[in-house]
Design a protein that fits this description.
- This protein is an all-beta fold and about 240 residues long.
- It has one domain (about 30-220).
- The chain contains one helix and 15 strands.
- It has one helix spanning about 95-100; strands spanning about 30-35, 35-40, 45-50, 55, 60, 65-75, 80-90, 105-110, 115-125, 135, 155-160, 175-180, 190-195, 205-210, 215-220.
- Strands 1, 2, 4, 5, 7, 9, 11, 12, 13, 14 and 15 form an eleven-stranded mixed beta sheet that branches. It has a four-stranded parallel beta sheet with strand order 3-6-8-10, with no helix packed on it.
- It is globular, with a radius of gyration of 19 Å.
- It starts with about 30 loop residues before the first strand and ends in a 21-residue tail after the last strand.
Length: about 240
């Protein structure tokens, strides 16, 4: 779902597509309100490939894989594809044995850029497995045939945690970047970052916590950015 003023027109504009300039077919956000979803064998709510789609005031509980998941964002800039004001409960007092034995995420972010979480309360992710977490990255990257190279950046703000021993658990390839706009994720103040704790990210501006954050959190004196190499020759770095 990629909502535009004229949704049936070509979504990709380049210099050869002068009949439908991007600015003449602006984004119109599609807002979904107040879904309550619980006890699903997989996700409470999932968006597969979306543009300016907002999930607002969703409430999910007792879901085995994730409360809410976005797989791919497309044709948007940051701030349009988002989850806003969610309540995500890992397990309730009425959870089934299958749920209690799982290691769910509260929200799984997409394998693409430009995704925002603005307001979410995570509760009761203290599972016996110890691997449940409020946040995960790289949706559907657990299978090598469908994975992304990772290091996608997500923006977060206005997060709350109750009984959440693990705020983040990274998924394969374990390279996600969370940009905390107000400090409610990292606890280090506005404009801070969280990412996996590889050697090159263990810098003096960053603190390693493999339990709560599954990696490092870094203060606002540094920035974490995705770097990619394309068209390299010779192919010394292949693989």
């Amino acid at each position: 779902m990629i909502p535009r003023t004229s949704p049936c027109k070509d979504l990709i504009y380049d210099e050869t597509n002068t009949a439908d300039p991007y600015w003449q077919n602006p984004i119109i956000p599609a807002k979904f309100y107040r879904l309550t979803s619980y006890k699903n064998g997989r996700n409470g709510a999932i968006a597969e490939r979306v543009g300016a789609v907002e999930f607002i005031d969703f409430k999910t509980a007792d879901n085995i894989l994730a409360g809410i998941e976005f797989s791919l964002t497309d044709d948007v800039i940051d701030g349009y594809a988002m989850i806003k004001d969610a309540l995500v409960i890992g397990k309730t007092a009425n959870a089934e044995p299958e749920t209690l034995a799982a290691s769910p995420h509260g929200i799984i972010a997409p394998r693409s850029e430009n995704f925002t979480i603005d307001g979410a309360h995570f509760a009761n992710f203290d599972f016996t497995s110890g691997m449940a977490a409020a946040l995960g990255d790289c949706s559907h990257c657990f299978h090598a045939a469908s994975t992304d190279s990772g290091a996608r950046t997500y923006t977060t703000s206005n997060l709350e945690f109750t009984n959440v021993p693990r705020k983040i658990r990274y998924q394969y390839p374990e390279r996600g970047i969370f940009h905390d706009m107000d400090g409610t994720l990292t606890g280090l103040g506005a404009d801070t970052y969280a990412t996996k704790g590889y050697k090159h990210t263990q810098q003096s501006e960053c603190t390693l916590d493999t339990t709560l954050f599954d990696g490092v959190v870094c203060d606002n004196t540094v920035q974490i950015r995705r770097v990619t190499f394309t068209g390299y020759q010779p192919n010394n770095f292949r693989g």
